Amino acid sequence: MSGGDAKKLVRSPSGLRMVPEHRAARSPFGLDEPPWVPDKECPRCMQCDTKFDFITRKHHCRRCGRCFCDKCCSKKVPLPRMCFVDPVRQCSECALVSQKETEFYDKQLKVLMNGATFFVTLGTSDKSELMVCRLSNNQRYLVLDGDSHYEIEIIQISAVQILTEGFTPGGGNTRAIGMILQYKVPGAEEVMQMKFTAGEDFSCNKKLSASWLAAMHKVSK
């Protein structure tokens, strides 16, 4: 996988982007740049309806491609899903979405790529294997390493169920203790299943495992 992870710097009308050299190596979390609404089709701000003139200039949101006045499109916010090197201009609505995603990129994805240790059970087997589970550097694969080795493409994952304990009918704290993952193998009809369980005898890794599972739950959304 590492051979296809090379990136290149490209310039688009929206700004500088650091993108994979090969489109097939793109992150499954990435977004394509939207087409901009042509200038001639937006005589007014698409948010506040202010008419554009020599004083009131039009700006395009880099996330949605719509046309706004400076007041409605003044924020410059990181947009990692489009691989922008620097923060880019976005409308207020898109800026809120991008700000929420920044936390996902800064925290959850890093947790997943750092990995955690689980007992992994394949299908209906009654045997489990201790494996280190992590997200690949290009974010395209879930990599499992132990005596065995698996690489599951993220886009092939069809369902993620987080297993918890500590819930009471009256409410209370719960913690993630494992997950059930369903995925399809390219070319195969059947759906495969894996069960991940945090080992009770690895108390020092409980917090790390719980954080990894919480991040995986966000990925599945």
Put the structure in a nutshell.
17% of the residues lie in helices and 33% in strands. With 221 residues, the protein is an alpha+beta fold. The longest helix is centred in the middle third of the chain and has 23 residues, at 92-114.
Explain how this protein is built.
There is one protein chain. It contains 2 helices and 13 strands. The two termini are 25 Å apart. Strand 3 and strand 4 form a beta hairpin. The chain has helices spanning 92-114, 206-220, and strands at 7-12, 15-20, 59-60, 67-68, 75-77, 88-90, 116-122, 128-135, 141-145, 149-153, 157-165, 175-184, 191-197. It has 2 domains: 7-111, 2-Layer Sandwich (Herpes Virus-1), CATH 3.30.40; 115-220, Roll (PH-domain like). The model has no long low-confidence stretch (mean pLDDT 87). With 221 residues, the protein is α+β, with helices and mostly antiparallel strands. It is elongated. Helices cover 17% and strands 33% of the residues. The strands form 4 sheets. A 7-stranded antiparallel beta sheet has the order 10-9-8-7-13-12-11. Strands 1-2 form a two-stranded antiparallel ribbon. It has a two-stranded antiparallel ribbon with strand order 3-4.
Key descriptive features of the protein:
single chain, 221 residues, alpha+beta, Herpes Virus-1, PH-domain like, seven-stranded antiparallel sheet, two-stranded antiparallel ribbon, 2 helices, 17% helix, 33% strand, elongated
